[in-house]
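Model it.
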Amino acid sequence: MLRPGFTLALLLAAGCAGDPNYVPVRQPVASINLVPQNDSIPFGGAVLLVAQPLDASGHPTVPDSIPIWTSLTPSVLVVDGFGQVTAEWFGPGAVRVRIDKVEASTSIFVRDPPIDSVYITPVNLTLSVGDTGRFTAAARNAARLPASTQGIVWYTSDGTRLTVDSTGKVQALATGSVLVWVTLAGYSDTSFVTIH
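Modeled.
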């Protein structure tokens, strides 16, 4: 037996997806219209899948059983009993639904996690006037994995004492203390340079 709420949801989905004047009746399920198909979601995001059972004529039908959802890539996607899919990792994934011995599946690609930190090494650097040095910047994403530093921007707090180029190379011009920092995707980190 179907739950009343489930039956009502199927009826509403049928009216929304096809002819509003068509009244679903109980016919054998021949196929499943799974929406959305081939979706893309961000890392940590979620999407609600809707499984609409169809009869042999392609009309919505009322099935004998509720949908049974399964993640085909559980390390990437988790799906609950209502078709709510959550991205646990990133990369390609897939979800399958089964209604009355009929199955359908859809692929969902989880986009790479966004950058959530950037840092500079070394933390401190001591130079003599005329010396050059180099800083290295690295980034991590929300999965705590190394991320690309493409688009990083370098700055110096006093260009008359220390210059820095786009690769992190610095040159000491005059004695004093200078800050060097980088920014990437809204995140930043600083390092301290002493020039003598």
